[in-house]
Structure of 2-amino-3-ketobutyrate coenzyme A ligase, mitochondrial:
Amino acid sequence: MNSIVNKSISYFLIQLNHCRYRNIVSKCTTCSLVGLTFKNRCEKWMFRRSMSLLTECIVPELKAIEAAGTWKKERVIASPQRTRIVLTNGVEALNFCANNYLGLADNKEVISAAKFALDKYGAGLSSVRFICGTQEIHVELEEKIARFHGREAAILYASCLDANAGLFEALLTSEDAVFSDELNHASIIDGIRLCKAKRHRYKHRDMEDLENKLKDSMSSRLRLIATDGVFSMDGTVAPLSKILELAKKYNALTFVDDCHATGFFGKTGRGTEEYFDQLGSIDIINSTLGKALGGAAGGYTTGKKELIDLLRQRSRPYLFSNSLPPPVVASASKVLDLITDSTEYLNRLRSNTNLFRNTMKMAGFTIVGDDHPICPVMIGDARLASKFADKMIEQGVYVIGFSYPVVPRDKARIRVQISAAHSANDIERAANAFIHIGKEIGVIN
Ligand SMILES: Cc1ncc(COP(=O)(O)O)c(C=O)c1O
């Protein structure tokens, strides 16, 4: 009886479109079938049907990701982010894959600044900045960031992804053109997609290609060249001097995402422009508070005052998303205090990077990248890279293998990231594990 009723209801509903069904259901409030109201039954049926449709669409997608070998597993950490982390199974590992470049994520002064702000300013603002989400510490941090970069002003976002999402659309119109390195970070690519400017993708770090594209777009109102300062998969640096030369020649603006440079790259940590001895020359810098600057969260844009004023009025991730929580603001602010006048942390990072790169090269490994704490150990084959990383973890060294489509086919690698908090002994332990496993599985002789 039950199944006949079910089948009849199903048949009846299939004949109706969604709106008509909703209409009938909303009027049918009294009739009841087999202990349940007709309305409830119909709604449950519709709910089950839409859920099974959802599953039908998603499951093949998930299987395809698994089959392609690109499924991302998440290892769960039971300790703060630092060089020695504890996993939930109690195993301690030496961490060589965080963006904790300056090792300040668990710094005591940073943590107490965050705790103090939590007590004084509360957990969060429950508001966007322009309604009632601006506290004095937000303004202070923006001023500190601008001073650190030697710029007129800065604006905070919930992340650098948001800063990238909010920049291009607010600044560029259909009369403008944007030139983007093909290997730029996904958030730059997405940000550019949101704007109406003509888009030109130039070959990775290929200045001839960039110049040709600039030549072809002389009629545009604004022309903006957009690049990562440091490309995080390779640890390579954008050819900034040449980019600036072309920008000058073709009257273009420059934008650099300096997430993998701010705070530690260049003589005093001012980033890619300082590395090239070109301080103050980039028009717009976006960066993150979620890597070297404490690692909590947050991002920003810094540049001319008029640009920052425009972003406060027009940038959608700024206008329509919550203010940064006070402890996050305070931790980044404390990190800027610690590094503005001192190169202690970045000097340690530099000597650790040299030690790792030199030891590995001497052992016969190929390490790519330009002098940067991102040290990709080239393995080639994807399965070998994954096996290598698993064996490293068995030896107590936490590293991750990267393979296609994140990096080109046959260029699988283990991306090692060095921190100022590593000791020389940590670096040697990691290098020894690489050498031992490298010999065992035939990556080196
Ligand atoms: C180059 C680059 N840009 C932007 C981001 C996004 O930064 P956030 O984590 O602050 O959103 C990242 C983070 O991985 C990055 O590497």
The pocket of pyridoxal-5'-phosphate is lined by residues 159-161, 164, 185, 187, 228, 232, 257, 259-260, 288, 290, 299 (CB under 6 Å). The two ends are 75 Å apart (CA to CA).
